[in-house]
Specification:
Elements: H1 11-22, H2 46-49, E1 63-69, E2 73-75, E3 79-88, E4 97-103, H3 110-116, E5 126-127, E6 131-132, E7 141-149, E8 163-173, E9 176-188, H4 193-202, E10 206-207, E11 209-217, E12 238-239, H5 243-248, H6 253-266, H7 270-276, E13 277-281, H8 283-292, E14 297-299, H9 312-317, E15 324-326, H10 330-344, E16 349-351, H11 359-364, H12 368-375, H13 378-386, E17 394-395, H14 404-409, H15 420-423, H16 425-437, E18 445-446, E19 475-480, E20 492-496, E21 499-504, H17 506-513, H18 538-556, E22 558-559, H19 563-566, E23 577-579, H20 587-602, E24 606-608, H21 611-615, E25 630-631, H22 649-668, H23 679-693, H24 705-729, E26 730-733, E27 738-741, E28 748-754, E29 760-767, E30 773-775, E31 780-782, E32 786-795, E33 810-817, E34 828-834, H25 839-880
Parallel strand pairs: 2-9, 11-13, 11-23, 11-24, 12-14, 13-16, 17-19, 18-29, 19-21, 20-25, 27-34
Antiparallel strand pairs: 1-3, 3-7, 4-5, 4-6, 4-8, 8-9, 10-22, 14-15, 20-21, 26-28, 28-32, 29-31, 29-33, 30-32, 33-34
Helix pairs in contact: 6-7, 6-10, 6-20, 8-10, 8-13, 12-23, 17-18, 18-20, 22-23, 22-24, 23-24
Amino acid sequence: MHRRRFFRLPAAVAAAALVAVSSPLIDGPISSAVPVPLAPNDPAVAQQWANPAIRQGEGQHGVSIELIDAPVTVPAGDVMTVTVLVRNTTDQTVDGLGITPRRGPASGSVADARVSAVADIGEYVDIGKTAQLADVGPGESREVEMPIPTAAGKGGIDTPWPGNYPVLLELSRDGAAIDTERWQLTVTPPAEPAQQAEADAMRAPMQPAGVTMLFPLHARTDVVPGETGEAPNRPPLFLSSESVADAIAPGGRLDALVDIYADATHGESGEAMSAAMCLAVDPALVDTVERMTRGYSVADARPPAVKEQKRLRDSWLKPKEGKTAPGKGVEDARAWLAKLQEAAKDECVVALPWANTDVNAVARTGNQWLMREAIERGPFTVERVLETPVVRNVVVPGAGYVTADAARGLGWADHASSVVGTYGMHAAWEAQHSADNAQANDTGTKVEGDQETNLERTDTPDASGVTAPAPRETVRVLVADNTLPQLGSSRFAQVGENVEAVTFPATLNATVAATGDHPRTVGYSDETWRYRYGLDSAVARDITAAAALRTAVDNAAVPAVDPEVYGGESSQAPSPVMVAPPAHWSSSTAEVLTSTVKDIMGTGKAVPMTMGDYLLNTPGPLDPAPAPTSEVPPESMGTPYSDPTVFSDTEVLSASQQANYIDDLTQLMLNDRGIALTRYGFTLPLRLDLLRALSITERNNPDTYSDAAAATRTRLNGGRDTLTALRSAVSLIPPGNVYTRTSASSPLLIVAENGLPLPVGASIVYRGPAGAKLNTPPNLTIPARGSMTIQMTADLPETGEGDNTEGENTDLQLYLATPNNKPISQPVDISVRTVGISVATWLLVAAVAGAFIVAVGVTLKRRRGARLAPSAAQTQNQEKN
């Protein structure tokens, strides 16, 4: 009988594991943010990405081996043919190369498979025959096809029983190992009927587990930052690249994903696959593609949100704007969207957070409306675009876990009670804020100290601002099972009032995440086994993920119950298995995993389980006894491991500043029945920009992290530039810096200007010395793209003494503010001077006035005499006649 052997860990890795196990940090969440984004090779975070003790020296000799083709499964005893690529990146010819196949002990669990990927080469003790290679010249690559027997004694690797086995190809030079390629091989029962019957007879009858699989559709949309809303039509779409067009074009990644999903759910075994799979759609993606169908432009920048009045000479000096070109993907967008609508019709569909934004980072901003846009709007957008119902009250965090801060805001995903689908998010905003605009001040409000808008505040955001009311219908969030401690065999836990976490197997999905062209390091993976996943090829890692899924399903099954013996009742049910691939997965991975799900259900090792059944803690045919629900304390939520993908404090602060200022700007504006655009609709695209900036996509791969962080920085900077321009559009313009008045009742005039497309309802707040009071009109309403003159009076402290002819200047600083006195505009500095009039001055004025009166009298007398002279002459002539 085959005796199972276990891998021994490399000493350095074992020491690291011992430290991890003995550390108290595993009792609760330990992931924390860094002040600024750090490159993956920075010593402060390098070990969070990859354990430096694992596979030392591999990939550093200039000669490498890469698996480019291999079967996912092999019948026991058959010959496995693989194709590898040997690449020489040095400037010298390399000779003496050989490839040796090795096999390690059978993997009894998914954890075993992860250990085998980091084990020493010597732990792969079943060694096949070495294939010698011809010399490889400098810069050359050589494709090698290798037949590897799996039967004993034939120069290959011995796989005597069905199961999953770690396979290693060792590339050596003159007998010294220089690189390896590793994957998990699934060995199926022998192809010969007699042998298969013998193998079947040796297996105890099992009750298969239910399996369900998310099928994500997501991509970065690259909308140029700074967009603001328009009505009744949406603003023109500007994209900074054609990446979405390339992905949805025939043969592109998104096009291939839809084809794979459609073939699986509508082809052979379609009914079972349809039940087991659920599309997980990014609402930002389908919203952008729908806009692309109406035409779009590719540009570096968009037209300014506020049109400025410029002089002719300013236009001469202005640098030329970036080039703008019409988008190429209009027809492909129409075709892809129609294909997706057809594939999704009557199927299970769930919405991802908007733009795959990190809900944990959004929660840290403390902004309620940003959190609501992240998880509340999406299902309604997907329903509108795909024209099919969407599973509601479900959140799928891209990080695979939620923090206590995020858990407080999950109640906003109560889609069953939301008004967004019927009235829009602006209705929710108005219900909460309309009363605020009615509470204007009777007069100007005096403030102390330097005033900052929310765009400049640097205090740490208060995450409690995202707290949602308890949902009326249960909200469910999908998280890795190791991020909620002490659940036992249950997959359910209460993380808030009427908010339930539903877990998926962490080790399996950490393996699935490490697939594709850009393997991901997920924050819930055990950092002891993290390594540079790119050391193994994408093909090898895809096959490994498929084997891990088979292992998970096998381990979830339970012995079948004989109804004649036990009456058909069982106290134990198989644990269902969920596959939750990363949102931005490769089509090759999707093909392999989808085929694997189809195969294991076709062979009876698993049965389809709908997403609805997986999410519900109720009895069912695949889950006869609902598991008890544990209540998780807030301090226990989150990953027990370090997470290098967490957004930095600087990034979160910038997003929080902008989100809060957007709220202030929205509250400043007033809806107008004569204008189709609403105030929330105008600022909505700015909020969605922030969600794109906090997207976790490409942030969890060390090769793409820095580019993702740069994209976040660029988007946040673009949003800040737009908000700065919008702030300048609402301003106070004094006629001069110094006001000279003759009395305390003399009016002070100032112009309020509004360059926004909606009226502005504002108040004036001011700073000044003790005793100074500014009297301003209440309820200032500045018309859309217009201005108004404001008349004020000031009660100022007396500064003149005795017969001084003029007092000193009184300096005031004025701001336009929201109805609740939050500064919204840049400050305006003015000085007020009250000119006193002495007795001598009064005498001079009287003398001048007297002289003026005498002069007027003389003038009038002369004019009267001139009029009378002709009349007298005429009378004398008449008397003579």
